[in-house]
Each structure stands twice: as C-alpha cells, then as structure tokens.
Amino acid sequence: MQRMIQTIPDFFYLEDITELMKHLAPSRMTQVSQEGIEGIGQEGARLSQATLDEIRSRLFRQAKARRLGFQALYTNTRRAAIRQFLTHLEDALYPLYRSIESLEEHHTERILSAFRRHRVMNIHFNPSTGYGYHDLGRETLENVYAAVWGGEMALVRQHFVSGTHTLTVGLFALLRPGDELLIATGMPYDTLQTVLGLAPAKIVATNREAAYGHLQEWGISVRLVPLKEDGSIDLTGVMAALRPNTRVLYFQRSRGYEARPSLFVREIALVAQAVKKKRGDIWTFVDNCYGEFVEDVEPTELGVDVIAGSLIKNPGGGLAKSGGYILGKKEAVERAAHRLSAPGLGGEAGAHPGGWLDLYQGFFLAPHVVAEAKKGAELTALALSALGYHTDPLPLTPRTDLIQAVEFQEAGAMIRFIQGIQKASPIDAHVTPVPGEMPGYTDPVIMAAGTFVQGGSLELTADGPLRPPYRAYIQGGLTRSHIKQALTEALSMMLDEPDS
C-alpha cells in the first residue's frame, strides 16, 4: 500500500492565494520605468492593476466553488486532485497568459520582418563543407539575428560548444594582458568562475585543468562589484570601481545558482549608458542566456555593445542541436570571429555539414516556445507558493528570464521534486537522478534533464546544488501541457513521505 501523504496546511486552499497576491513585493522595474531609457519609451515590466484584479477575482470565484485539499488521498487519487488543482490555477492565470501571448506576437512579427527583409529561401538551409567559404545560409542567418536584436553584426555558429564557451570567446576577444574585466553583477555562475580564474580552491585542487588558460593567467585582472541588498545593480559602486585599465563591463542577466534576482534589460541598460557616458572606451557585455524573447527588447537595442548566449537555450527554439551567438557592435563581433577561428580567417570560414534548417526554424519558433515556458513558470510559481514554499520570482511578478527558483526546507523534498520532473520527461524517464559531483561545481548537483538535446535548457529541466538553502532551479519547457504533466508528477513525489 502506498504511504499517505503529509498533511497539507490550510494555506494550500485557493482563497489564500488571493491573500498572497496582496503582499507581492513591488518591482524594481517600477523605478526604472519611471526614469526611462534614453531613446526608448518608458514601458514597465509590471502587470497592470486591471490584469491583477482579474486574476484575483478568478481565483476567488473558483475557491468559493471548490476546496482542493489533498489530505488522506492515495497516490492515484492524489495525482487527479493535483491535476485539477493546477487546472484551476491555469484558469485563473488566463489573463496573464493573454499578456504573454501578446508579447509572443510582438517578437514573431519582428522575426518575420527580418526573414522577409533578408529574403530567406530554401537554398539557405543547404549544408556547406570544407572551409565553408561563401556559405549563404550562414551569412543570411547572422544578418537575421542582427536585424531582430538591433546589432550591427552577429556571429551565429554551431562551433560554440556551450554558453560558457561562447562567453569565453567574447571576453578573450575584447581583453588584452594588462586590461581589467569589471563584473557589475557580483560573483558569476560556477562554470564561468573557472574561466575568470576565480574557481574555488577545492576545484583547482582536484582538477588541475581548472587552472589552464583562464583570464588571470593571461595577465587580465578581474574585479567584482557586489549587487545591493535588494539585488539591484550598485551604479554608484560600479562608477567608483572604474579604473584606467578597465576595458570590459560585464553583466550576468540571469541568476545562475544564486539567490539574487535576475536583472531586467532596462536596469542593465541604465548602468551601461551611465558608464559609456563617462568612459566611451569601455565595452559593455551582457551574458544573455535564458533571457532572449522574455522581455520586449534585448540589451543591444538599448545601447549595450555586446550580448552572447547559447543556441540550445531560448533562441534555438528547441531545435538547435548546439551552438551559440555573439551579437552587437561590428568591431566587437569581428574580434570574436577571429578569436573563434584564427586571425585572418574571422567569420568567413566555418562549414556546417548538417545544414541550417534547424537554426532558421528554431529561431522562428523561439518566441512561441519561450511563451510556453513562461506560462509554465507562472504556474509553477503559483502552485509552489500556495504550498508554502518560497519562490523567486513570486507569481504574477515581472520576469526577465525563464528560471524559476523554489526553496525547499530540506534536501529530501528538493530531491523528490527533481526526480518527479525526470520521471515525467520524454527521454530517460526510467532513470532516477541522484546528487553527484559535476565539473566546475563545488557541491553535489542533482539534475533532471530528460531532454531531446543534451543540455538543452529550453526544454524542461530542473537542477540545483545540494547545499542549504535547498533551491531547485526549474527552467524551460517546449509545451505548457508537458510542464503541467511534469509539475503534477513532481508535486506528487515531493508530497509523498519517503519510506523509512
């Protein structure tokens, strides 16, 4: 016989979610939208009060109709109750879903315009071999990317092996011995710490390769400006930290495995603009991973010099098998092209024997898949908040990336939740993930990654380091319906008491 689930507290009822909504923290974007961005309108990321009121009303009406407590339900019945609970939440979120779909239409229109402008044809999907000279498909795709995101030039290649590799190429392209990299967003995520020469001693001691060829070994200094207590960028601190040899000001848009909030495009742009006014010789560089198509603009449209990211995240639309992009000012992108290949070759070489169809079609579909993932993130945040878990972002608050963090009180609940995501995955559903060591990370990591593309985090994944506080990071999802199925399984496993 299956174990009974743990007792669910009273705040699991839908009436109390309406109370939760009354206490949502005001967004930092409120101030940003009031200040505005030079040359750009003052659109805010916060939901309108009318939309919030409609969602609150829907939640209250449904709660009056039915209470969805789960006490003393066996496994099969519990899953049915969880699905019904999630369905009620989705009904309430419908006004927000409409808003997400409106943003999807905005991005799709821009992509269509770029496709038409550059006359994309079937011939552009053809493979290339050897040196890859005069690859029309490659050249046109890079022109499309640049047109959509306001860059002078783009480098879009499957020769980038990961997002970290893409960022590394960009940084080495812009920095020289004696230069300084100033990071405006505090400590970067684990794998980039190795690139910068900031890897913890524990990693270096057990992995000598972690000390090979990092920035500081090449005589490039790295300094960090911590974020403020509220998680926002410390503009005063950044301005004070500038030195004559500061050459790149770097921003990490997404949170990584940190508790801090992800950063909005307009917030980053305000700092970048202020620094460029004082020091026009500094490159501003944004790690854009997980953020593409989540807001209405990308950083390069608001004056940032360079953005970079992974094609197996948002812009690949779930179809790209590998790769990355670097986009922005022509000089910066050309430097990156010569770093990726060799001086003198630049972006003129680089064959693609598999053809370009997946990258074109994936970019075209990306706004829709990102919208599906955003809907799933909102549902996850609302459901877990109702269970009493801390979520970040909170439900119904603005988002700038696809990562939804959930904090668990103990390791077991986090492990069972992530195992539930894996169990509902289309690939390797029979595999049970357990915490283990991973290159570049100081703590054991547990990861649900039953994806079609290995490491493809636009597909639904969940992971996190096993250290207090126990935070799981859920991201992606090709379809909203799959996210709902996985959330049902994850909640069911999480709420089940482990066998003693």
UniProtKB/TrEMBL annotation:
Pfam families named among the record's database cross-references: Met_gamma_lyase
Organism superkingdom: Bacteria
InterPro entries documented for this protein: Met_g_lyase_put, PyrdxlP-dep_Trfase, PyrdxlP-dep_Trfase_major
SUPFAM superfamilies: PLP-dependent transferases (SSF53383)
Gene3D superfamilies named in the record: Methioning gamme-lyase, C-terminal domain, Type I PLP-dependent aspartate aminotransferase-like (Major domain)
PANTHER family: CYS OR MET METABOLISM PYRIDOXAL-PHOSPHATE-DEPENDENT ENZYME (PTHR46658)
Name of the protein in question: Aluminum resistance protein
Species annotation: Candidatus Carbonibacillus altaicus
Lineage: Bacteria, Bacillati, Bacillota, Bacilli, Bacillales
